[in-house]
Every structure is written in structure tokens, then in C-alpha cells.
């Protein structure tokens, strides 16, 4: 028996496997017992109603996918009346993902979802900030720090900041989130990308550009998870292209305390509980008694910090 | 590590969607354009199926093809009594090209049945389906269900030419009346279709219309349905990722309560009320 339990700050998880926001919902209960995974993470909600982006909202690129869904949301009222009670039938912690157009709107929503039944709030600061010309809060350390300070004042619940790969300042943004009051970092979100149909010469997504996810994102997310674990003293939750137990182990070794599985669920809807079983077997075969023993066990002590935090390719 | 976990061990007690590797019984061309794939399926899966629902297929990475996401495909036929699940498809892209390489004895991973199928109300005695080309594949199991329920069915099949008319024999074998219209003999125009359907309404009475695939046919049936207060349903398509309702990729707009709402084709559909559907 391998102990798969991990602590993300004050939140205890029975195993380190949870869904990435937007790739999980109540409907997955049709496929497997939702109490088999470490946490439940909702699709991002906004305060008001949102329709989302024009279709097509998804397309395939070699071995990965692009999406531009645009955070359709039924609003905070529906969420508190319908979604939270659904998840209360499970023992697994509920993490609510939220987003806002401005720091103040974000903070108001953060306070509104601080309710019984919610165990942590994932703040999607990778979304565009209309006060910063549409640039995501988490592109710059200053806007990251400002929004995190406001969010911190809005709730007593653990705050997980979801970072974006669309920045050239990953360690600085990670530290800004920590200083602003984040209890953990989710690293990372999709990376801005594009695909064009060469016959019609039209972009393959209705929104022209979208986020790349799936296996081709994994090395980028892994690099960022490693940098964030080195740059801060708060737990890192790895996210990006994770499809099997080996991928999970790679993120844990890099310094992640837990991981989120996203696009892989679209290929195999029961992949998360399968990964839990496989991870236990993989750790047992490596002689580990606890998953905690592998976290941050990467052998990198010979390297100069300048290499660890480099932003340009060598 | 090769510990393969059977998803059945992880399933909730009463799953409504199954993820299974199903053996291929056959996978052969039925004419120049279409192929019929017959899978061997367990009875508990087939008993969950309804006409109009779909399966999300994990197309194999074989023959040099590397499809990644699953592909939604409507059920062509389901036969609990002989343990068979049928799909009719046209090779159009990477996913269907990969499917065409499957041979007897190979397996295909399927997820389903998914979505909401066709409604046949108890007092609907004469059902009329109108479709064109491969759209008829989606409507074929409706004929099967109509036969099982003892309802009268008229199938109006439209195609480019007589030799690609799909499913005529299939519908006739199920006791349906079949009316064919084609581009080559000039009978498939909307004007002629309208005359044919109006005659059906006048002579036999029609309780419900069913269609899929064609914008022009949708507009026509909406008009005729409204004129005579005849309900109808349409099966729609959209690019999908998850197939279960999680990702909201596959939405389409619908008229509802005086406004317009986005609904998920995979979850609220793929079959929708015909008057709420919006031409595209």
C-alpha cells in the first residue's frame, strides 16, 4: 500500500489527481464514481451570464487540441443553487474556478462563492483583464500582485492562482502571486495558439486564436511547474498535457504537490481514476511508501540558479 | 507499467454511458461512398440505446493516421437480440480514414450511448422522415423504432443520383413507404419536395416530421410544420471534444422563450425540437 495523500496547504487530498477546470462537470458522474479522485474543480464561472465564443470552439492539431470556448457561464446564482449542492453529495473537496473582467468584479465573485460546501477557490488569473488592454492578469507580476491582494481580502478560503504560459516572467509572476496571498499555484493554463484550414484559408476556430492543450503542452507546463516550485514556498499544482501516471510522476519530481488532468479526459473519460490506480502501482514498483517522498526529488543541485530561471532557450 | 484498468471496475452502479473496446465483426463498403461497420456489443449497452443517440469513437491510430480527439457518430442500427451495433459512415477525414482500416477481429473503443434521441409520442401514428445523403444514416434507427412500436413510417430520401440513394432497401424492409427524390431526375428541388409533403399531409395526415443534415429541408419542414401545426425533430451536428457536456465546445443557437440560447449538441441534443432549431 502506497500512501497517496497530499496536502495542498491546509487542504488534505486523498490522492494528487484532480481535473483541470473546463474538462470536468457533473456529467462525468455518468462515467465513474467521482469520489475516486483527489478533488473536484469546476468549470470557470463568472458573476453574470456569458454566452461564450462563436463556433467552431475546438479543433485538433497533431496530437493535441486548440479551444476557444470563451467561458460561457450561467452566473453565480445558478452556481450556488445548483452546482454546489450537487457536489456536496461527495466527500471529495470542491474547488471553484472563478474569473472576472476587472480586479474588483473578480473579488466580489470571490466573496460570493465563499460558501458552505466550497473548500478552495481557483482564481483563473489567466483570463483577459479589460483594464489592461485585455492582457491576462498573470502576464505581468504587477497586475498579478494587485488582483491577488484584492482576492485575498475577499475570502478566508484557500486561494489557488492559475497561471498562464503566455508570459515571459514565470518566476516573477509566481512570486507576485505568493506575495499577494495565494495559497497555491496551478501551473499552467493553455498557451495561445492558432490553426488555419489551408483549403478555405479560414482560421479553424471561430475566435481565430485559442489555447493549445494536450501532450504538446506538457514540456512547457512542466518547465513552468519546476520554475514555480523553485521560485516560491507555496504548493504547485501541475497542469498541462498530463495523460498517464508517468506524466504525473514527472510533475511530482519537478516539485508539484498535485496535478490536474484536462484534455486527456476528453480522450478517455475515466482516465483520472485509472491514473490513481496506475500511480499507486508505479510508486509501489519504485519502492515508495508515500507519494510525498517523490515530490520535488528532481536531481538538479549542480545547476546555477540562472539556468533554472532562464527565460530564453539556451 | 501495463496495469490496464477495466473501466467497468470504476463505474458507478448504474452507468448510462459505457466506455468499451468492442470487437469489429465487419467493416465493408456498401457503395462507392459509404461503409458499414458492425461491432459486437454487450446486450446491456445495446438496451440503453435509442434512435438518434450517438457514440463517441476513439478512432485508431493506424494506417499512418493519427486522429487525437474522439469522433461522434450517430447510431445506424442497434440489435440487442443479435448483439450488434452498426455505424454507417463516409470517409471524409483523418478519423474516418482510420476507421476504414479496421478489420474483422480488431477492436474499437466506443463511449456511449450519448445524448438525447428522437421522441415518438404515444399518439403519433404516421411518422415522416425527410433527409438527404448520409443524413439518412442518422434517421435509419428511427425506422427500426417505429417498426418496433408498430407505427406507420414514410421515408423521403433525397440524393444526388439514384445510385447513391442510401437506405432505401433498409427502410422498405422495415415496412416503411419510401419516396425517393434525386438531383439527376430533377425531383429533389425544394418546390417538388414541398408538393410531395403537402400531398402526404392532405391525403394521409402526418403526426410528426424528422430530419437532419440539410438547411433547406429544415426551413421547408419548419414552414410546413407551422402551417399545419405538426411537431417535428431534427438531429444536428457540431464539432465536439468531450461528448459528455463538460467542455461546451459543441453548442448551437436555438430559439427559446422569445430569445436565443446556446445548447450543447452532445447533451441537450443531438435531437432538438424542429421549430426551436435555427438554420445555419
TrEMBL record, chain A:
- Which species is the source of this protein? Aquamicrobium aerolatum DSM 21857
Give the required cofactors.
FMN
User: What's the gene?
Assistant: pyrD
Q: Which InterPro entries match?
A: Aldolase_TIM, DHO_dehydrogenase, DHOD_1B, Dihydroorotate_DH_1, Dihydroorotate_DH_1_2, Dihydroorotate_DH_cat, Dihydroorotate_DH_CS, Dihydroorotate_DH_I
HAMAP family (alphabetical): DHO_dh_type1
The biological processes this protein is annotated with in GO are:
'de novo' pyrimidine nucleobase biosynthetic process; 'de novo' UMP biosynthetic process
Residue positions annotated to bind FMN are 21, 43-44, 124, 162, 214, 240-241, 262-263
Q: What does this protein do?
A: Catalyzes the conversion of dihydroorotate to orotate.
- Which pathway does the record list? Pyrimidine metabolism; UMP biosynthesis via de novo pathway
Q: Which residues form the active site?
A: 127 (nucleophile)
Dihydroorotate dehydrogenase catalytic domain location: 6-283
Q: Which reaction does it catalyse?
A: (S)-dihydroorotate + A = orotate + AH2
Concerning Pfam families, the annotation shows: DHO_dh
Where it sits in the cell: the answer is:
Cytoplasm
The record lists substrate as bound by 43, 67-71, 124, 189-190
NCBIfam families annotated for this entry?
PRK07259.1, pyrD_sub1_fam
EC number(s) in its UniProt entry? Answer: 1.3.-.-
- The protein's name is Dihydroorotate dehydrogenase
Which keywords describe this protein according to UniProt? Cytoplasm, Flavoprotein, FMN, Oxidoreductase, Pyrimidine biosynthesis
What is the free-text note on the cofactor?
Answer: Binds 1 FMN per subunit.
Task: Give the family from UniProt.
Answer: Belongs to the dihydroorotate dehydrogenase family. Type 1 subfamily.
Q: Which domain of life does the UniProt lineage start with?
A: Bacteria
Q: Which GO terms describe its molecular function?
A: dihydroorotate dehydrogenase activity
GO cellular component terms listed in the entry, alphabetical order: cytoplasm
TrEMBL record, chain B:
Q: Where are the transmembrane segments?
A: none
- The positions making up the signal sequence are none
Gene Ontology MF term list: 2 iron, 2 sulfur cluster binding; flavin adenine dinucleotide binding; metal ion binding; oxidoreductase activity
Q: Which InterPro entries match?
A: Cyt_c3_hydrogenase_gsu, Dihydroorotate_DH_ele_sf, Dihydroorotate_DH_Fe-S-bd, FAD-bd_FR_type, FNR_nucleotide-bd, PyrK_electron_transfer, Riboflavin_synthase-like_b-brl
Amino acids binding FAD: 71-74, 95-96
Q: Name one Pfam family in it.
A: DHODB_Fe-S_bind
Q: Which GO terms describe its biological process?
A: pyrimidine nucleotide biosynthetic process
Free-text comment on the cofactor: Binds 1 FAD per subunit. Binds 1 [2Fe-2S] cluster per subunit.
> What are the residue boundaries of the FAD-binding FR-type domain, all occurrences included?
17-120
Q: Which Gene3D superfamilies does its entry note?
A: Dihydroorotate dehydrogenase, electron transfer subunit, Nucleotide-binding domain of ferredoxin-NADP reductase (FNR) module, Translation factors
Question: Which keywords annotate this record?
Answer: 2Fe-2S, Electron transport, FAD, Flavoprotein, Iron, Iron-sulfur, Metal-binding, Transport
SUPFAM superfamilies, per database record: Ferredoxin reductase-like, C-terminal NADP-linked domain, Riboflavin synthase domain-like
Sequence positions that bind [2Fe-2S] cluster? 242, 247, 250, 266
Q: Which family does it belong to?
A: Belongs to the PyrK family.
This protein is called Dihydroorotate dehydrogenase electron transfer subunit
* Organism for this UniProt entry: Aquamicrobium aerolatum DSM 21857
**Classification of source organism:** Bacteria, Pseudomonadati, Pseudomonadota, Alphaproteobacteria, Hyphomicrobiales
Amino acid at each position: 500500500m502506497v500512501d497517496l495523500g497530499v496536502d495542498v496547504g491546509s487542504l488534505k487530498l486523498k490522492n494528487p489527481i484532480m481535473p483541470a477546470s473546463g474538462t470536468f462537470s457533473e456529467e462525468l458522474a455518468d462515467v465513474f464514481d467521482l469520489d475516486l479522485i483527489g478533488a473536484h474543480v469546476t468549470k470557470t464561472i463568472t458573476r453574470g451570464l456569458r454566452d461564450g465564443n462563436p463556433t467552431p470552439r475546438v479543433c485538433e492539431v497533431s496530437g493535441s487540441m486548440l479551444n476557444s470556448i470563451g467561458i460561457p457561464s450561467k452566473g453565480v446564482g445558478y452556481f450556488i443553487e445548483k452546482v454546489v449542492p450537487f457536489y456536496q453529495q461527495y466527500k471529495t473537496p470542491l474547488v471553484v474556478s472563478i474569473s472576472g473582467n476587472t480586479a474588483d468584479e473578480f473579488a466580489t465573485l470571490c466573496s460570493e462563492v465563499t460558501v458552505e460546501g466550497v473548500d478552495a477557490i481557483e482564481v483563473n488569473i489567466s483570463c483577459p483583464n479589460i483594464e489592461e488592454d485585455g492582457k491576462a492578469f498573470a502576464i505581468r507580476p504587477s497586475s498579478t500582485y494587485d488582483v491577488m491582494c484584492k482576492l485575498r481580502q475577499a475570502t478566508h478560503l484557500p486561494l489557488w492562482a492559475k497561471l498562464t504560459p503566455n508570459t515571459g516572467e514565470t518566476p516573477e509572476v509566481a512570486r507576485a502571486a505568493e506575495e499577494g496571498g495565494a495559497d497555491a499555484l496551478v501551473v499552467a493554463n493553455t498557451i495561445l495558439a492558432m490553426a488555419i484550414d489551408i483549403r478555405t484559408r479560414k482560421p479553424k476556430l471561430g475566435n481565430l486564436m485559442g489555447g493549445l492543450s494536450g501532450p504538446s503542452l506538457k514540456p512547457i507546463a512542466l518547465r513552468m511547474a519546476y520554475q514555480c516550485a523553485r521560485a516560491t514556498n507555496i504548493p504547485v499544482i501541475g497542469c498541462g498535457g498530463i495523460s498517464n501516471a508517468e506524466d504525473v510522476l514527472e510533475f511530482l519530481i519537478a516539485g508539484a504537490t498535485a496535478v490536474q488532468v484536462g484534455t486527456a479526459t476528453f480522450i478517455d473519460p475515466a482516465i483520472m481514476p485509472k491514473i490513481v490506480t496506475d500511480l499507486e502501482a508505479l510508486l509501489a514498483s519504485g519502492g515508495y511508501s508515500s507519494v510525498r517522498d517523490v515530490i520535488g526529488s528532481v536531481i538538479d543541485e549542480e545547476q546555477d540558479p540562472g539556468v533554472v530561471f532562464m527565460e530564453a532557450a539556451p | 507499467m501495463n496495469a490496464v484498468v477495466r473501466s467497468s471496475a470504476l463505474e458507478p452502479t448504474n452507468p448510462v454511458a459505457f466506455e468499451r473496446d468492442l470487437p469489429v465483426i465487419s467493416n465493408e463498403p456498401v457503395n462507392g461512398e459509404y461503409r458499414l461497420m458492425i461491432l459486437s456489443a454487450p446486450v446491456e449497452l445495446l438496451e440503453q440505446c435509442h434512435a438518434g443517440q450517438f457514440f463517441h469513437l476513439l478512432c485508431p491510430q493506424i494506417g499512418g493516421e493519427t486522429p487525437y480527439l474522439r469522433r461522434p457518430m450517430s447510431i445506424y442500427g442497434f440489435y440487442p437480440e443479435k448483439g450488434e451495433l452498426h455505424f454507417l459512415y463516409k470517409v471524409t477525414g483523418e478519423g474516418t480514414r482510420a476507421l476504414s482500416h479496421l478489420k474483422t477481429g480488431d477492436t474499437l473503443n466506443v463511449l456511449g450511448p450519448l445524448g438525447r434521441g428522437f421522441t415518438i409520442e404515444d399518439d403519433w401514428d404516421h411518422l415522416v422522415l425527410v433527409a438527404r445523403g448520409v443524413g439518412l444514416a442518422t434517421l435509419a434507427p428511427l425506422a427500426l423504432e417505429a417498426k418496433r412500436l408498430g407505427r406507420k413510417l414514410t421515408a423521403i430520401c433525397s440524393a444526388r443520383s439514384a445510385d447513391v440513394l442510401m437506405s432505401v432497401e433498409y427502410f422498405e424492409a422495415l415496412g416503411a413507404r419510401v419516396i425517393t427524390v434525386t438531383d439527376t431526375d430533377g425531383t429533389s428541388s425544394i418546390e417538388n419536395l414541398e408538393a410531395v409533403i403537402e400531398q402526404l399531409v392532405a391525403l394521409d395526415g402526418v403526426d410528426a416530421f424528422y430530419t437532419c443534415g440539410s438547411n433547406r429541408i429544415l426551413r421547408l419542414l419548419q414552414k410546413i410544420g407551422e402551417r399545419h401545426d405538426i411537431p417535428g425533430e431534427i438531429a444536428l451536428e457540431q464539432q465536439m471534444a468531450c461528448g459528455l457536456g463538460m467542455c461546451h465546445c459543441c453548442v448551437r443557437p436555438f430559439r427559446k422563450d422569445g430569445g436565443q440560447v446556446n445548447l450543447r449538441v452532445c447533451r441537450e441534443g443531438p435531437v432538438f425540437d424542429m421549430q426551436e432549431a435555427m438554420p445555419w
